[in-house]
Amino acid sequence: MKEALKTIAKILLPIAIGIGVFVWLFSGEFSIDIFKQINFDSRLIIALAFAMLFVVGRDWGMCWRFVTLTDRTLSWQRSLKVTMLCEFTSTITPTSVGGGALSMIFLNREGINWGRATTITMITLFLDELFFVITCPIVILLFSDDALFGFTTSEFSQGLKLIFWIIYIAITIWTAILYLGIIAKPHAVKKILMKIFSWRLLRRWHKGLEEMSNNMLSTSIDIKTRSKKWWGKAFAATAISWLSRYLLVNALFWGLYPAANQLIVLARQFIVWAILMVSPTPGGSGVSEYLFTEYYGDMITGGAMVMILALLWRVLSYYIYLLIGTFMMPSFLAAKKIEEQTKSDNKL
């Protein structure tokens, strides 16, 4: 009962934060009349259909990646279950932590042993970061500062640009560590990390780093036998999943505000998701709503349309997973409780 109440509290918290930010941003502008601005024509219907297609594409890419990384040990149906649970935990944990890190637990519950589940989790983490590190420079080179960061004289734009580059540098360093740790030089990386975290100020994290280093070693052994085709499929699945997240906003803009430059809308999604990677709130609640309305505000005439777009974006990219996970978690927790009870009985 206590565990169920904790889960409910974690679900209600991000919803409350999100609603609170919307009220704060649009308390002076909200009116039921703003929905009359929406023209439910064939364009909007097609746009919403594409938006749903991109929602499916996001999850299809994740499922394909799990199927590939497990060498089809995990079926598409079970991969979908793991994907939905990962997405749900992402909605109730800070994005700086990420629900994907818990995928090893969900994979293990689906019959994948702990060692392999840890290996798969580390590879998915590496692929996600690698996609970001590769694609962001391309976007930066193709678009000007004004296109990506709005009016460069504004404090918001300058702050956003600074935060983005700090995040990009940090993730690039982390990706390099993951590459060296699980592919190129796992033993050397472990030795360096253990030496650094033996210092007095960092000693409290020594045990955790040792466990992570051992996981990188086991991951390295497993993936050294993998073919380029295997890596290609895993990276392609990663790209499909992330691009689907970005293109969701393009579909919504095309349906509700077709005058917007679609290439800039897409390019700015790379910046948005980069910022959300370090959000301290559950699923980026509050931060997402504020960032979207401020960042895309210069592309849209009228605050009401920004609010509608932001709301639809959050429903399809966040609240839908919160809802699905709410229905899935009770059965997951019940199965976990039965499993723990069975282990306890066997010991007796």
Provide structural commentary:
The chain is mostly helical and 348 residues long. Helix content is 77%, strand content 0%. The protein has helices at residues 2-26, 42-69, 76-92, 103-109, 114-142, 145-149, 155-184, 186-196, 206-223, 228-256, 262-276, 287-295, 303-347. It has 13 helices and no strands. Helix 1 runs parallel beside helix 12, helix 2 (42-69) crosses helix 3 and helix 7 (155-184) packs across helix 9. Residues 340-348 have low confidence and may be disordered.
Features:
348 residues, mainly alpha, 13 helices
What is the topology?
Blueprint (H helix, E strand, L loop, with lengths): L1 H25 L15 H28 L6 H17 L10 H7 L4 H29 L2 H5 L5 H30 L1 H11 L9 H18 L4 H29 L5 H15 L10 H9 L7 H45 L1
Helix pairs in contact: 1-12, 1-13, 2-3, 2-10, 3-13, 4-5, 5-7, 5-9, 5-10, 5-11, 7-8, 7-9, 8-9, 10-11, 10-13, 12-13
Mean pLDDT: 80
DSSP strand count: 0
> What class do helices, strands and sheet pairing give?
mainly alpha
Helices, by number, come to: 13
Would you list the SSEs in sequence order as H and E? HHHHHHHHHHHHH
Could you describe the largest sheet, including whether it forms a barrel?
none
Beta-strand fraction estimate: under 5%
Oligomeric status: single chain
Low-confidence stretches: 340-348
Radius of gyration: 22 Å
> What fraction, in percent, of the residue positions are helical?
over 70%
Shape annotation: globular
Span between N and C termini?
25 Å
